[in-house]
Write a structure and sequence with these properties.
Elements lengths: L8 H8 L12 E3 L2 E3 L6 E6 L4 E7 L3 H16 L1 H4 L3 H17 L1 H12 L3 H19 L9 E2 L5 E9 L2 E5 L5 H4 L1 H9 L3 E5 L6 H10 L9 E3 L4 H10 L5 E5 L2 H12 L4 E5 L5 E4 L5 H13 L11 E5 L3 H15 L18 H17 L2 E4 L14 E4 L6 H4 L6 E7 L2 H8 L7 E5 L3 H10 L4 E4 L12 E2 L5 E2 L1 E2 L1 H6 L2 E9 L1
The site of ligand TXE has 26 residues, from helix 10, helix 11 and helix 14.
Length: about 500
């Protein structure tokens, strides 16, 4: 797997037909319903990771821009146009947002694929989940009710579920349109207003989405977008006293810093963080299906998934047979290609910093004594492509076993029995997800109960929810939930009302 990557003709045609949006010279942020440049006038570059070519620059928003956006969001929060809107109308607006996303799904997916390198098939899937998530939450405004609490004849007691205020949303580059809906949809369903701060290297789809939102009936200032660096715009948003809650997706280290800073103003915080998720293959599994699922687990989106199944555990007796099937699948279906070529399942990693980071982990793997079964370095001679990599001869203490690499790299070990599988799967600081491959019902349920992770897939990997299941991390993979009623509650506060009769 060391051939050079040259863009096939179909991808070149797709690139010539790219939405004009990605090539516009300079994009604008959205504050209070208007498109604005950064107060400083400065911009940040965006790059196509498959070609290393420059795309449209985005404004480098800083504290002054964040302050303007928070003020606009606060004004919109109390404006009767939003605060007094009936719940059914709010639900209709959420459905309208879903319509608009559906209509422009291909365009938004293409923008993300070019801006952050995920295969079009992957970004298309994210957009489908995005519209479904808005539809799921569109049903909630009319059902978000408090309760009447029993009391004596002299009192009436009840609760109200109220929005929090301004929600700051900060998220990552590995799935711009995948991570946003689980935050934006429930925030709006509950009646909050928001300031969005997308990742600095992958902001274009959010800016395009903001243009599309302006065509719905959302009042001005309900959704604002400030682009910029985490250390500038991101930090200013987390520290701003006018923000009631931060919803964050990113690394565990940055998540901890966000929570520390948010403590000063006692903001609520939900954190979707990193992972080092196990894929556990038992001898009785359908090994062909397991090989495909396990490969997708650590190679899908070039391994840049918080739920990536980057630690592979195989029952001892089937090790050789399974590894052969895995290598065959990797070669047949997961050879990297242009993200815009139909059928590509592995694109480049998203940006130069990530390319350097993954490359350095491959050096660390060799220094630590891991064996490179396949891959182990750059793929091709241009673009930020990394060869799909499988490592074995690994020990539990190695950095490549313990730390999130966030690239197309899996580490493989064996286990002896169920208890050994559970112990090894749980030997991690993280706890976001797991996949278990078995045809034995007892094994499936025992594993599902014993694994310390927020999501457990049995005989699949990576199926995400369309809003209706809670998604959250155990241990250092996060705090709180997205999705489902748990994900909506995170954007509300309960008020107790006591009326003396
Ligand atoms: O993430 P950051 P980075 C992991 C993955 C990756 C590593 C580094 O292992 O290799 O993190 O990626 C904003 N205050 N994950 O450095 O820093 C930033 O602008 C407020 C896993 O890109 O977490 C961006 O919008 N905001 C993860 C967002 O945080 C700040 C997805 C994420 O950036 C900030 C991404 C600050 N002080 C990376 N600093 C997953 N769970 O999927 C940065 N940001």
């Amino acid at each position: 797997m060391t051939a050079s990557v040259s863009l096939p003709p179909v991808a070149e045609a797709a690139r010539r037909a790219l939405p004009a949006f990605v090539r516009a010279r300079e994009q604008m942020m959205w504050i209070g319903g208007r498109q604005v440049a950064a107060a400083s006038g400065r911009t940040l570059p965006n790059t196509d990771p498959a070609t290393e070519e420059a795309l449209a620059g985005v404004p480098r928003g800083e504290a002054a821009d964040v302050d303007a956006a928070v003020r606009a969001a606060r004004a919109a929060f109390t404006d009767p146009a939003w605060a007094g809107m009936s719940p059914d109308r709010r639900g209709r607006i959420l459905n309208r947002i879903a319509d608009v996303i559906e209509k422009h799904a291909d365009e938004l997916a293409t923008i993300d694929s070019v801006n952050m390198g995920a295969p079009h098939r992957v970004t298309t899937h994210m957009l489908a989940e995005a519209s479904e998530t808005f539809r799921y939450y569109a049903g909630w405004p009319t059902k978000l009710s408090g309760v009447a609490v029993p009391a004596g004849n002299d009192h009436m007691l009840y609760t109200r579920k109220e929005p929090l205020g301004v929600v700051g949303v900060i998220w990552a580059w590995n799935g711009p349109m995948g991570q946003l809906p689980g935050k934006l949809a429930p925030a709006l369903a509950a009646g909050n207003t928001v300031v969005l701060k997308p990742a600095e290297t992958a902001s274009l789809s959010t800016l395009r989405l903001a243009e599309l939102l302006a065509t719905t009936d959302l009042p001005a200032g309900v959704v604002n977008v400030v682009t910029g660096l985490g250390s500038e715009a991101g930090q200013a948003l987390v520290g701003h006293p006018g923000v009631a809650k931060i919803a964050f997706t990113g690394s565990t280290a940055t998540g901890k810093a966000v929570q520390r800073l948010a403590t000063d103003t006692l903001k609520r915080v939900t954190l979707e963080l990193g992972g080092k998720s196990p894929s556990v293959v038992f001898a009785d599994a359908d090994l062909d299906a397991a090989a495909r699922g396990v490969a997708a687990g650590f190679l899908g989106n070039a391994g840049q998934a918080c739920v990536a199944g980057s630690r592979v555990f195989v029952e001892e007796g089937i090790r050789e047979e399974f590894v052969q099937k895995l290598l065959k699948t990797m070669e047949a279906a997961f050879t990297p290609g242009d993200p815009l070529t139909p059928g590509t399942l592995v694109g480049p990693v998203s940006n130069k910093a990530q390319f350097d980071r993954v490359s350095s982990y491959l050096d660390i793997a060799r220094q630590e004594g891991a064996n490179v079964v396949t891959g182990g370095g750059r793929f091709g001679d241009h673009g930020y492509f990394i060869a799909p990599t499988l490592l074995d001869n690994v020990r539990p203490g190695m950095r490549v076993v313990r730390e999130e690499i966030f690239g197309p790299v899996g580490v493989l070990s064996t286990f002896t029995d169920l208890d050994d599988a559970i112990a090894q799967a749980n030997d991690t600081d993280y706890g976001l997800a797991a996949s278990v491959w078995t045809t034995n019902l007892t094994t499936a349920h025992r594993m599902a109960a014993a694994i310390e992770a927020g999501t457990v897939w049995v005989n699949s990997w990576g199926q995400m929810s369309t809003g209706n299941l809670p998604f959250g991390g155990y241990k250092q993979s996060g705090l709180g939930y997205e999705g489902g009623l748990e994900g909506l509650d995170a954007y509300t506060q309960a008020k107790a009302v006591r009326i003396t009769l």
